[in-house]
Amino acid sequence: TQLLEQSPQFLSIQEGENLTVYCNSSSVFSSLQWYRQEPGEGPVLLVTVVTGGEVKKLKRLTFQFGDARKDSSLHITAAQPGDTGLYLCAGKITQGGSEKLVFGKGTKLTVNP
Amino acid sequence: EPEVTQTPSHQVTQMGQEVILRCVPISNHLYFYWYRQILGQKVEFLVSFYNNEISEKSEIFDDQFSVERPDGSNFTLKIRSTKLEDSAMYFCASRGDRGGLFFGSGTQLSVL
User: Fold this and answer.
1) Sign (positive or negative) of CA dihedral A26, A28, A29, A32
2) Consecutive 10-residue runs of chain B (112 residues): their mean pLDDT?
3) Other CB atoms closer than 10 Å to residue A84's CB: what's the count?
4) Domains contained in chain B, CATH given
5) Which of A41, A69, A76, B74 measures 20 to 30 Å from A84, CA to CA?
6) Cβ within 8 Å, pair A42-B48
7) What digits encode the pLDDT tens for the residues A36-87?
8) Residue B84: phi, psi to the nearest 5?
9) Minimal Cα distance from B92: which residue of A?
10) Which domains does chain A show, CATH number per domain?
């Protein structure tokens, strides 16, 4: 069973602070995706990282895939109240012709004004 | 912007009843999925569907569950005889050849 552990589970910070959330596994993934989920809505894709060591930036968000493709981090610079939400990492597992995503439980981020 | 559409948004049913959850994936997508999320828990994979057949299914997707693509646009999840523990938010998702999944807004299923 492939498990993705996300930490911290909850994070409450003040506007303007920086933060990093982590996604760790003992399994190797063909790629890893980060999603953001609002209450009552489906997850929305933020980024996909594919290559070990890859770094992608999306405005104030920086995503990194570990060299061994087992872990990833999301760093937010100068957080804003609009960043509040549940951040999910999901590892893609490809077997034969099929694939599926395995999700972590998420990090619930609250940015206070 | 194209989106995945799910209906109904909420479904309340009695234990033992059949329910059909409906999804319209993004029109040029070829891969379709159902996931579910029990309140407070993580998003769980149920089934993937490609080329008119199931590609993979999880242990949750037992004989009570089935999926169908009855026409060129709809993708349905049927639960034959619902149980209390089937209560969850059910998400449909689709993707093209590459890239991440596009999720619908979900159907909140409540089994009483």
Assistant:
1) positive
2) 92 97 94 93 93 91 94 92 96 88 96 96
3) 16
4) 5-96 (2.60.40.10)
5) A69
6) no
7) 999 888 999 999 999 999 999 999 999 999 999 999 999 999 999 999 999 9
8) -55, -40
9) A42
10) 8-112 (2.60.40.10)
